[in-house]
Amino acid sequence: MNEVLQPPRECSWCGVDAARVRRLRGMHGPVHLVMCMACGAVTPAFVALTVEQYEALSPPQLGVQHLLMPNPSSDKAIDAAVHHWNHAPLIGPAPQRAPPPSARQQRRTLKDERDPLELLARMLVPSSYRVPVEGRSSRPGLTTSDVAAAVGFMRSRLGKAVAMAVVTRADELSIARLTDMARWRVRREVLLQRPVPLKLSRAADRWKLRLALFDAAHELVWPEKRTPYGELARRAKMRKRDYIVVHRCATHVLQEALNAARSDLREKLTRG
After folding, report:
1. Distances (CA, A) of 240 to 53, 203, 221
2. How far apart (Å, rounded) are the C-alpha atoms in residues 13 and 10?
3. Which of 31, 86, 177, 254 satisfies CB 3.0 to 4.6 Å to 26 for a cystine?
4. pTM for the full model?
5. Over the stretch 77-99, which tens digit does the pLDDT of each residue have?
6. Which candidate, 10, 39, 36, 11, places its Cα nearest to that of 22?
């Protein structure tokens, strides 16, 4: 019996030993087949019937192999499916084709090849401060090494990470690493709310906190890709009211770190 439920042969499509017997509902009763749970390759569906039952089918079920025998049973159909799995070609999985990007997605694909250090000097310094250049002052102009040194000597590790993520337009993996650094600050901020939106003693609520924190960081780095709160709350499986509270706490922590990095960078650049 174990040989029937666990076909010994590996999948001929992907080579993974993940075949399972599936029982599906057909038009005229249950049918059985063997499917690879890794790639989706399957055998034809089999059903055992008597001659009288087959003649009574109106119309015959397409795509199903009918086994005619005097004493039909589900075990006969399973044996036939397993035998086909082991000795006959399989029906391959449907090819996965990614849909072409829409015009809106193409517009959102931004390619900025400028020097990140130049962007740091332009974006993190408020508009009231003017980077000195030759001819406007007796002080020499700033170079990329000055900006790099100022960034390297930032006091806040979180502020440096947020600033670099915003300036370099970080990808999702880098944003996820950033959220790990800010998680405890956001956790403390959430616990100060009344009423507390999440019970962080539960693992499910801690995971919801991380989802909301990732959404807030992604919105800070990519503000033009902002998603409505309702859709984000559904993804996190949270009430919209509670999600907004957690999202605002995360945004406050990240924005505070970015502002601290901005002022720190301005101080180090102006002091020279």
Report:
1. 55, 20, 22
2. 9
3. 31
4. 0.49
5. 888 888 888 877 777 666 666 67
6. 36
